[in-house]
Amino acid sequence: MAKIVQCVPNFSEGRDLDKIEKIVDPLRGKEGVKLLNYEADKDYNRVVVTVIGEPEAVKNAVVESICVASELIDMTKHEGQHSRMGATDVVPFIPIKEMSMDEAVELAKSCAKDVWEKHNVPVFLYEKAASKPERENLATVRKGQFEGMSEKLKDPNWHPDFGENKIHPTAGITAVGARMPLIAYNINLDTTNIEIANKIARCIRHSNGGFRFCKAGPVEIPERNIVQVTMNLTDYTKTSMYRVFETVRMEAKRYGVNVMGSEVVGLVPMEAIADTAAYYLGLENFDMDKILETGLME
Questions:
Q1: Which residues of 289-298 are buried (b: 16+ CB within 10 A; e: fewer)?
Q2: CATH classification of 4-178, choosing from 3.30.990.10, 1.20.120.1770, 2.40.10.120, 3.40.640.10?
Q3: Which of 64, 154, 178, 219: disulfide with 105, CB 3.0–4.6 Å?
Q4: Confidence check: pLDDT of 297 > 70
Q5: What residues have CB less than 8 Å from 250, skipping those under 6 apart?
Q6: Is 82 annotated as catalytic?
Q7: Where is average pLDDT lowest: 76-80, 147-151, 258-262, 288-292?
Q8: Cα distance between residue 235 and residue 247, in whole Å
Q9: Angle, nearest 10°, between helix axes 241-253 and 270-281?
Q10: Over 80: is that where the pLDDT of 216 sits?
Q11: Which residues form the Formiminotransferase C-terminal subdomain domain (predicted)?
Q12: Active-site option among 82, 119, 168, 206
């Protein structure tokens, strides 16, 4: 059976629709590549793209898309709520079918090499592809963001895995890696107080003693007069969506704040949604075999 890989590149443009279409266009109409979704956020000023297909075909299409992004996005003028260090901020490869994590790591390294050699954008490897333990965590790699990255690269410990120890003047630097599927999940609070979101994020994220597979932080959404607790759930089978949601709701009550709702950014595994539905509906002896679409896909 054919190997299948998923790739979820994040580009630092969420407001200019013309630029977004040009960045995404190389991912359309390619043999062996299927564009599943792309979702832009004006407040984050970021677009998250999901493609799937044959490993080499996906890699080549993504490298082409990165080229377009590096030409169109000027990071010296970029502003947004989301942490970022490059025009193409992060490029994770996720093994989906008939593909091992080791193979995904090699694909990530090949992609990183192409990005540097073809576009002169330096690259860090992260997560399972990381060259050092301290580079596994994306937040650590991205610390300093675009504005502080030139100074960071002067430290010999932070020489890029591919490229020179200086950022591309307008496209910055990119992180390429391999990982398991994660869920990008945001919970909305009916307050404009960013410190409340920050305190709640500290309660739930692993680095402060929270859930093992949760990375979280606060974000302001001025046009809606709300703040968000934004997070990545890096293993939804061990840190579930409903458990995080209920914890955030419980913590919010301490500050007289309510949860207004939540959102998923990009795509989400069906199992994660089914697990959450089973919790809130109190379903007994429920598993994926009871989902109609599961039988149809066999």
A1: eebeeeeeee
A2: 3.30.990.10
A3: 178
A4: no
A5: none
A6: yes
A7: 288-292
A8: 17
A9: 50
A10: yes
A11: 181-295
A12: 82
Give the list of residues 6+ apart from residue 281 with CB closer than 8 angstroms, or none.
none
Q: What are phi and psi of 116, to 5 degrees?
A: -70, -50
Alpha-carbon distances, residue 229 vs 246, 248, 283 (angstroms): 13, 8, 28
CA distance to 5, 24, 89, 151, 222, per residue, from 206 (Å) = 28, 33, 23, 28, 27
> pTM here?
0.80
Residue 145 burial by Cβ neighbours in a 10 Å radius (0-12, 13-18, 19+):
middle
Q: Is 176 helix (H, G, I), strand (E, B) or coil?
A: strand
Higher pLDDT, 25 or 294: 25
Distance CA 146, CA 121 (A): 13
Mean of the per-residue pLDDT values for the chain? 94
Mean pLDDT value of segment 142-170: 95
- pLDDT score recorded for residue 30: 93
Residue 129 has a pLDDT of: 97
Q: What would the mean pLDDT of 176-199 be, rounded to a whole number?
A: 95
- Please report, for the chain, the start and end positions of each structural domain, with discontinuous segments joined by +: 4-178, 183-297
Homologous superfamily of 183-297 in CATH? Formiminotransferase, C-terminal subdomain (3.30.70.670)
Query: What type of residue is 104?
Result: A
pLDDT, tens digit, 9 for 90 and up, residues 16-39: 999 999 999 999 999 999 999 999
Give residue 204's region: left, alpha or beta (phi > 0; psi -120 to 50): alpha
C-alpha span between 291 and 284 (Å, rounded):
14
